[in-house]
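Late entry, evening session. Most of the bench is empty. Finally got around to the prediction I had been postponing all week. Sequence below, unchanged from the version circulated by S.P.
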Amino acid sequence: MVDALFGVPRLARVYDALDADRSDLEHYAAMVTEFGARQVLDVGCGTGELACLLARDGVDVVGVDPAEASLEVARGKEFADGVRWIHGDATTLPPLQVDLAVMTGNVAQVFLTDEDWSATVNGVHGALKPGGRFVFETRDPARRAWEEWTREHTHQTVPTADGTVESWGELLSVELPYVSFRGTYVFSDGAVLTSESTLRFRERGEVEESLTAAGFAVDAVREAPDRPGKEFVFVARKQ
């Protein structure tokens, strides 16, 4: 099930304005250079910010996402013609052999069951060349990020191509490892839309075990430079 924030066209069209700070993507672009990757798979590419950034630099990019509304936004961006866009997920990919697969924006946390997560990791493994790398981030549960998912911490009013949008988040439940929350979006024409989400917070060891079981070697677990101490950034290599 796709969250409304990504799957409802009106929300997808204002997503980039509401989440304007994407400095995290610079670190992923740097890793593409670090690993000398020329073919990259962007899993959960959303509105295509990273995919288009890489395409601008001449990287051969495949962007896959289950939200068609987000892909429609992505297809309209500069350099989008250099990306192969796929409506689907890591379990429905056509035959691929890429150097690097990435999942930004804590996409790893949307897979709530062990079965869904395992299927995703296996799908990525199958899309990589031997020795190819899988890089992704997930929040450290010990940092309790959800404690700031409140109106007080998240309220904003921003101009968008669809008029001014006021938005905020509110925590619905914490039943670890699951955390649920709701976003509310008020448009200047009076329309009010909401999007409810549930994320799974996995421990570092749990993620490492799942990667090993799928045939990866975990080469490193780094910090997110833009959010030090808050996330695990896994660098896994296909064996």
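Two things to note before I forget:
The chain is about 30% helix and 35% strand.
Helices lie at 4-7, 9-18, 24-34, 49-56, 68-75, 114-127, 151-154, 204-213.
Will write this up properly tomorrow.
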